[in-house]
Here is the input.
Amino acid sequence: MIAGIDIGSTTTKAVLRDNNEIVSMIRTKALDPITSATGILGKMLFEGNIPLSRIERISITGAGSSKIDGDIFNIPTIKVDEITAIGKGGMYLSGVDDIIITNIGTGTAIIEANRNNITHIGGTGIGGGTILGLSKRMLGTADIENIVTMARGGNLHVVDLLVGDIVDSGISFLNKDSTASNFGKMLDTAGQEDIAMAIINLVYQVIGVMSVFAVKSRNKNVISFTGNGSTNEIGKKILIAIATMYEMEFNFPENPEYATALGAALI
Here is the structure.
């Protein structure tokens, strides 16, 4: 069995592979990378009633992997480049061997992956960390579930400047409800729910448009979203609206948050 562990800045994910079968996927939170790696592996083995002796290799990746030197539990342990892991995991989850992947984590990475090569196209510091940081300052909470709950009742029209606020009709392919400027209106009547929605909208519009530009630069029209941020219910709706606007195909595979850990396990 091969264990793939993605040690992120806030969340650690682990995948256990037995030949070509994925037998376990779990996640946990711990600030210390060593605690994260050893703890999640122990939890996975305990819950699956799997002896430690069954683990042939541990593949670690993510920001926290740089803090770990040597083998874990005396099991051969290798470090996997995070971009490579995202590419491998993204291809596996999407079932496509030639694809653009946008991985939404604390920040966002955009990757082109195929059987022969995995390339980091670029990305942005805008991501889940942006939502948490802005919400902590503006809303007094950094709990993503609370933020999403508030955003469900939000009204963008009192925070964002829309195309319809500027002209009577649309501009180019943008309709009257398209965003002209994020937070460009910000009425005094805007409440926390409205601001929560505007924060999420800002982040996912940036990610969506950057993804479109990346796909177009590679003469493709399909992109797959992975990472914790790709499971955000409101964010997904915003991305789908962008895909419709640009006539693109955005895919959301199952278990996208495990793409990086899965990719490490597949190395």
